[in-house]
Amino acid sequence: MKKIFLFALAAGLTACATRTTTIEGLTFDPTVCTEKTLTMPNGESVVYDAYEDIYFVTNVEDSTYQTLNFYVPKGAGQDTPIFFRTYVGGFMAAAACEPNPHDATGRALKEGYVLCIPGARGWNSKVGETFTGRAPDSILDLKAAVRYLRHNDKVMPGDAEKIITDGTSAGGAMSSLLGSSGNSEIFEPYLQAMGAAPERDDIYAAVCYCPIVDLEHADVMYEWLYACTNTGVRGLNEDQIRVSEELKGMYADYQDSLGLKLPDGTPLTAENYTDYLKTFLIQSAQRALDEGYPMPRNIGVVRRRQTVTDIDMPAYLSYVAGTTSLKNPPAFDPMGVLSDFQSPENLLFGDSTGSAVNFTPYSCSCTGSQIDNALQERINMMNPMFHLDQQSDKAQHWYIRHGARDRDTAFQVPVNLATKLMNQGYEVDFALPWNRGHEGDYNLNDLFYWINSL
Ligand code: DHB
């Protein structure tokens, strides 16, 4: 009811300079609650209390997305950890929604966890003619939701000091940002302006499925990995091959600049990267074999009887590239380089007029555009690799998964993220699960075994 009223108010204000609607306070009302039942895939019923459509900022710019839903299964108490699932995908807006028996939200309730499903603005959210969710707005909304839970921790069931975030793809990126940038001062002025609660926004653990991160370096990593397929299954034309080779040529310097280390302390470089990557792929293929999954002979998995001994990378990458087509170079910042195709990332870094922009030095040099300080700061805010080098309160526990045939971003992206976290001493459970593409919330037994063990 309140939401409908606010929506009408926001719509009525579209002709004014500001569309922001102010709501009073951020105090949780424990009396506005409905009992609901979720039927799990096995027929089991989970009964829970639902608290929905709760604004998490006082200056509401977009009433469709700046709310959270909060669910409390029977038996949960003040000490119960809170599973915090964002449905951001494609860097688009995601409204708060109800638990789903088929994903980690339903499973979390069944396991007895308190559940929060926050909404967030994204590149496509709009009020009137104004785009409301260009970078960094999605992460601001999610941080504001975390702050709301802390602000009301005494009156809300669940323990806001035990928030476990979860998301897939762009949502995995959001989860990694929540985990890497807790209480970072870079976000503070924005959160204050939104009327977020004056609280901490660090979290306890981050679950990241196929996080689409390190956007400004992802083009280079992608070409280094997949250029071996350019004239084969990828089928690039001459111009595309030239761009691919130029980007690939920038990889070694970038990888060196990260200063990452292998477990034995050896620097991780472009030279030893393939071997490092193979260790994860071999582990993944071995588990699949051990669990009895079929393993075709012609996809580059080298084995002796039931033991995986090597990965023939060109063959394996051609297999990955063949299961769903690769992105053309530049994969993330393509606008204006060889076509006018606008990626979600070009739009993410555009502004409230709906513009799209280039955000990498390579693509900017092709199109004659610039990365000014304001854009650079927004790029930084969206990158967990940046935050891991900054003053912030990081999550201590990380669960990162990227499918072994997911080609939405290069394997180095999640591998570098996991490695940087391990190098910095955080607890990281990382794998490239076999035969998984670009997807999330799978192998929930593994995930909840990990969460229950925290
Ligand atoms: C997502 C996928 C992409 O390939 C991408 O570039 C950005 C986001 C997604 O699924 O969220």
CATH superfamily of the domain at 27-212 and 447-453: Alpha/Beta hydrolase fold, catalytic domain
State the share of residues found in helices, binned by percent: 25-40%
Total count of helical runs of at least 4 residues: 16
Low-confidence stretches: 1-18
Task: Jot down its keywords.
single chain, 454 residues, alpha/beta, Rossmann fold, two-stranded antiparallel sheet, 15 strands, 17% strand, globular, disordered N terminus, binds 3,4-dihydroxybenzoic acid
Report on the architecture of this protein.
The protein is of the alpha/beta class. The chain has a domain at 27-212 and 447-453: Rossmann fold, CATH 3.40.50.1820. It has 16 helices and 15 strands. The strands form 4 sheets. It has a 9-stranded mixed β-sheet with strand order 2-3-5-7-6-10-11-14-15, sandwiched between helices. The two termini are 39 Å apart. Residues 1-18 have low confidence and may be disordered. 3,4-dihydroxybenzoic acid (DHB) binds at residues 89-91, 169-170, 212, 332, 344, 408.
